[in-house]
Amino acid sequence: METRIRKAVFPVAGLGTRFLPATKTVPKEMLxxxxxxxxxxxxxxxIEAGCDTLVFxxxxxxxxxxxxxxxxxxxxxxxxxxxxxxxxxxxxNVLPEGVRAVFVTxxxxxxxxxxxxxxxxxxxxxxxxxxxxxxxxxxxxPGALKQMADAAQSSGASVIxxxxxxxxxxxxxxxxxxxAFQARQGRIRAIVEKPEPxxxxxxxxxxxxxxxxPGIFELLETTTPGAGGEIQLTDAIATLLExxxxxxxxxxxxxxxxxxxxxxxxxxxxxxxxxxxxxDSARQLMQNAxxxxxxxxxx
Length: 299
Ligand code: G1P
What we know:
alpha/beta; 13 strands; 34% helix
């Protein structure tokens, strides 16, 4: 299958308990790094990769995500009237022209595999992307999904983002075993969800970016609950790779696990230090904070 991906799935139905009490009312995907919510980073990456249909798998508590992507007529009108064109552009670009958002409700939290299966009717019979908004990938060049979409387009195979993790962390990830890598890609021979360090087939972990062929849906339909009692995307991929080539892709960029406190802090620091207007002041503020707290200079 040599088609360019056009559709991207964003599972956003998780509870976000790690960020309570903030996530009592604000979905975790709406937590910001500087001025953009996490979901916007993932959406921008999908659009850059060529996607024009964004499928959000939500639940009844996630109105804020749908509201965010809805057109804010009153606000636009106000900004227009007061000549705030820069801000107007910002809110209009949340969902650029030509890109549509589709919302599908996942009635029960049955797992990531089940969330992806909820997108089946919207995706149809074409390759598509899955982006987990917790994983924010910073890169100065092309985004991770763009890199993967290019690779998938030339091989026709499904492509899954991976990175090395310390062995003691394998139980937090899907872990793959691959053939030798050619440049950034290696064919996956085995994939297992959250193995304990002593049984993990490697330390190469799945990061939340996937380009999948639509054959995955049929497999998800018959996937039974796995790790954590959930229907796992990883388990369906394990069957997919018995039928067709699935490649692991070592993307260029730095991934921040914004599903954890430290990951969100790290991402905020990185984006602040790389920000065209804020970087100098941010550096100074960080230095001041370290000095005040009696910590040695960074340098
Ligand atoms: C999910 C996937 C896992 C993957 C991880 C990446 O797990 O099931 O295979 O390694 O995302 O972030 P979660 O973090 O949702 O438990």
